[in-house]
Amino acid sequence: MTTAPISEQELRQLQARIDSYMTNRWLDQYTYYSKKATYNKQVYQRVRLIVVLSGLAIPVLVTIPNTATWLTAVLGLLVSAMTAVEAIYHYGDNWRAFRQAAEQLKRERIYYDAGVGRYATDPVTAFNTFVEHCEDIMAQESSTFFKRDEQMQQASQQR
Question: Which of 14, 28, 30, 158 is the most exposed place for a label (fewest CB within 10 A)?
Answer without folding.
Answer: 158
